[in-house]
Each structure stands twice: as C-alpha cells, then as structure tokens.
Amino acid sequence: MTPQFPQQTAPCAPPTRRISRQPLVSRFVLICCCLLVTAPVMAATPATPANSSVMLEELTSTELRSRIEHGATTVLVPIGGVEQSGPYIALGKHNVRAGLLARQIAQKLGNTMVAPVVSYVPEGSIAPPAGHMRYAGTISIPPAVFEAVLEAIAASLRQHGFRDIIFLGDHGGYQKNEQNVANKLNLAWAKASALHDARAYALSGYYDITQSTYIAELHKRGYSSAEIGLHAGMADAALMLATQPSMVRSDAMAHGSKPGVADGVRGDATRATAELGQIGIKLQVDSSVAAIRQLLQRNQ
C-alpha cells in the first residue's frame, strides 16, 4: 500500500518546500524488500543441536544409545557434596564445580559423556554432629552408603555400554572411598568377564592438584598459606568465582566481618579473584585430560 501524505496547503509556501513523494515511496519499498530478503535467512540460522551435549541427562535415551554405539564409551562421574563454607560461599560449591569442570574435561577429551553430579556424600557424623555437620545446610551420608551409590551408578553405566567409568571427586573427604569402589568393581568385573569389558577409575589427581600445584602457583604470586587456607579461604573462593561467581557473596565479604575457625572457615577469601581461580581451573582440566588419556591408552 502506498502511504498517503498531506498536501501542502499554505499559499505562500515556496515551491522548494513541497514534500516529494517519490523518494519516500522508494525508501519504503526498499525497506520492505530488505526485510523480505533477510527474514528467511535469519530464520534459517541453525541452532546448536540439543543432542550434541556431553551431559548424559540432557540427551534422550535413544540419542545416548547412538552416541555410545558411535564410540562415546567413556563416562565421567562428577562427585560434589553439600557442605558449609562459611558465610560467604554457598553450600553447593562442590556440586557446581564438579559439574562444570567435568563438562570441560569431556569436551576436550571427545567421545566422552558426563553423568549427573553425585551430590550426597560423607560429611561426618550426624548425631552427634561433627565437622561440617555442626553448621546449617551440610548433608552427610554414611561412607558405606556412598560407596554403594557409586557402585550402583557404575554398574548402571556399564550395563548401557560404557567401558571406562571415571570418578571425579571435588572434595577431599571421600577420595579413599572412590578408590575403594574402583578396586572392588574392577575385581568383580574381571571375574565376570574374561574380556575385561569395563573398568572403573578414581582420578585422584583431579582433586590433588588443587592442594599442590595450584597452591604453589598462588604462593608464587605472593599469597600466604594462611590466606590461601584449607577450607573456604582464598583458594576456595577464587575457584568458585571462576566457575559460578553468584555463589560467592563478594559484597558481603568486602564489608562484613572476617570469619574464622568458629565460623567454619580456614583462610581469608577477601582478595580472591576469578583470575586467580582460572589458574586452578585450567590446571584441573588440563591435567585431568592428560591423565585420562594415559589411562585409556594403557588399557586399550
């Protein structure tokens, strides 16, 4: 439809002030043509397919079956935990970090899937409460229950065709439990199948590097052991800022009191930054990828 424009009615208006319809109509037609040309192109832009995810729970059963049949027979089992980390770091830090880092590791490895994060882990005695259980929000299960859960998870994954099942524990308290389960499963599976069709691994290096190489890197930058801390200190906060900054109450920490052992904190997170955390995240991801590749090559 051609737009209608009001006629110039002032008798004294000079001829040069009259509105010309032709340029306006031309522009209108040009704009419409551009929209018609570009609309199909914009609609045709492909989105990232949902079935390209490395996260098992984001796929359908048939999509996962196809991935396994095409060689994705390695699966990571990230293990987190729900525990207090003082007043400035949220309770789910281990769950978030384990899930996000497992995703990055799987993407770098290729042909690797990531199982849902195991969120319930041993955190100490419930009655009477000990350790982190003395603080609101911590959830603890008995070590035997935890090991049974890991066994069932690994057995389920093996049943579906995964051949290399790797535990990635983000918390130090259950590292031995992971190894116990891996040893038990490998013994049982070796007896059940002469072909050694599957193996379980406890990748302790994933956690250990945050207690060794990462700490050394922070020391090189002038931070003391007291500041870096053993729990909910600068190292913990920095790793969290690098993965999910909303889980660190940075503003409250900057203006609030400095927590201590009585508050469930061992360290000083005040100077933590995402940049410092990225150092640790890169170390964890890169070293885990290298270690897993070595394990897989060794057992081919």
Report on the structure:
By secondary structure, the protein is α/β, with parallel strands linked by helices. The protein has eleven helices and four strands. The chain has a four-stranded parallel beta sheet with strand order 2-1-3-4. Helix 3 (93-109) links the parallel strand 1 (74-79) and strand 2 (112-114). Mean pLDDT is 87; it is low at 1-21 and 28-48.
Describe the structure using short key phrases.
single chain; 300 residues; alpha/beta; four-stranded parallel sheet; 6% strand; globular; disordered N terminus
Give the topology, please.
Elements (H helix, E strand, L loop, with lengths): L20 H24 L16 H9 L4 E6 L13 H17 L2 E3 L28 H17 L4 E6 L5 H18 L6 E4 L1 H5 L4 H8 L4 H4 L5 H10 L6 H6 L18 H25 L2
Parallel strand pairs: 1-2, 1-3, 3-4
Quick structural overview:
This protein has 300 residues and is α/β, with parallel strands linked by helices. The chain has helices at 21-44, 61-69, 93-109, 143-159, 175-192, 204-208, 213-220, 225-228, 234-243, 250-255, 274-298; strands spanning 74-79, 112-114, 164-169, 199-202. A 4-stranded parallel β-sheet has the order 2-1-3-4.
**Portion of residues in helices?**
40-55%
The fraction of residues in strands falls at 5-15%
Oligomeric state of this protein: single chain
The number of helical segments is: 11
Q: What is the succession of H and E elements?
A: HHEHEHEHEHHHHHH
Q: Low-confidence segments, ≥5 residues, pLDDT <50? A: 1-21, 28-48
> What is the 3D form?
globular
Structural class by secondary-structure content? alpha/beta
Largest sheet, strands/sense/barrel? 4 strands, parallel
Strand order of the largest sheet: 2-1-3-4
Radius of gyration: 29 Å
The first-to-last residue Cα distance is 71 Å
The number of distinct β-strands equals: 4
Overall residue-averaged pLDDT value? 87
